[in-house]
Design brief:
Length: 256
Amino acid sequence: MTTLARWMVPLFALTLGGCTPYYQKASIDDLLAAAQEDDGDGVDGDADQCPRAREDLDGFQDDDGCPDADNDGDGFVDAADACPTEAGGPASTDGCVPFLDADGDNVEDAVDDCPTEPETPNSYRDVDGCPDVPVKVGETALELGAPIGFEAGTADITAPGQLVVAEVAYVLKSTPALAVVEIGAHTDDVGSDRANKKLSLAQAEAVKARLIELGVAPERLKAQGYGEERPLMKGTSEEARAANRRVEITIVERAG
């Protein structure tokens, strides 16, 4: 029996032909109220976009009065969707967006600063997803855990070198007392003095530019190219030349 039928009350009227039954609305207001909330989901009147279908009251768009079989719209009905409010998951993950972790370090690619290089789990910045090259603040310079290297004969920072630069940026940003530092680049003795001086300055400027990209204020950075004039190790052996090719971050000024 429909709502309208339930609310129709049989009445009788006297006519010339006798007593004839007919139906009359018991109460216009009651009838309209019942019709407006026919599905019993508690959403009344014009607010109920589905007056003949009960709202499923699952916390998702419950005020429209319509049942929502697939809240996230990913094609998996909520009853079979392990992540009913997370769209985009394939069947293989039961409707959940898969956890993508290319380097297997348990840091999701979407928030992994180094998605192809695994994190070093050592309780030191483990959430950034990058292998760690700890950089310490010494008395006169930053102590680098690994060298900042360049592709041979260029100012292009190598991938391992980029990691060191990133650690330097982190230390500088977290240590505002280091008001000004100098990025000093050094070469080996291969090539002319003039060419090496020019190359080392370009390398120092490249490190400075990268630090600025990583959020270090430009006014805190000075770049200097020393060429081959300050070797760490004398000689022409490959060992000596490798030691002499380097970048040093020295402290020029401390705040306060």
